[in-house]
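queue> holo job accepted (2-acetamido-2-deoxy-beta-D-glucopyranose)
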Amino acid sequence: MEVRTNVVFFCFICLSLWYHGEVYSGGCGFSEDWLMQVTVSAEIQKSGFHRELVLSVHCAADVPDDLQALLLQRLPGGIYIDSYQLSSLQQDRGLQVLLDSEIDLEAPAYSSSGFPAFVFPTRDVGDTNRLWAKVPIHGRYQRPSGSGQKWEQVYIEAPQLLLRFDLCKELQPLPPHKLVEAPCSALNISMCIWLKIHHWQDQQAMRIEIPVGHQHLMVPVCAGTLLVTLLCFGLIARAVLAHGFSQP
Ligand SMILES: *[C@@H]1O[C@H](CO)[C@@H](O)[C@H](O)[C@H]1NC(C)=O
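queue> job finished
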């Protein structure tokens, strides 16, 4: 009797270990079918130097409650993001963007290099299948053109999508997608394991046109500025000479 109880107890322990193994280390994560239906879109709005980059993640059905998404957006040297503007948008609209370096807002395009932005899209109130973020980006000043060209083209790579589930502590790899480490949120307090999605769709780079100055306009613009300055100086000098420095 004693032996039988022990055997039953032993089997019970084995079974429960096996069961927990299945649940906790055998994994949680994404199914291939579900992932196949996830798409990313990127669009640039507005014109001129100040644009808005609208990034969206679309699911085939409602976005799962504990799904977290991260869009890794590389930006070229011709573009900058203003971190002061980001922090005010974070307060006003809940925009979640993390930059890993200081960005010089004044530098012209030809002396700047590209940088990554970590964009954490949030739930769209009007569309339960979508996560999105609207990120303000700005064109840097380009070298003036000598050939009469009015625009400089700047290419922005398509973003890369990283996904994880909040409740899934040991995400399973799912080739061809890779597990990578990246900040859990825009606060960058801790690092999380994410599934970096290998895109099936061919993703095109986006192209924007930034206005450029003209070298042949430099002489008339400088001459005009100098003329106006001299004229104003002359008028002030005349007034001073005519009325003196005396107080009225
Ligand atoms: C997050 O913080 C760590 C540690 O402070 C830092 O090494 C890393 O560069 C940060 N990541 C980003 C994207 O800012």
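queue> The pocket of 2-acetamido-2-deoxy-beta-D-glucopyranose is lined by residues 98, 100, 118, 183, 188 (CB under 6 Å).
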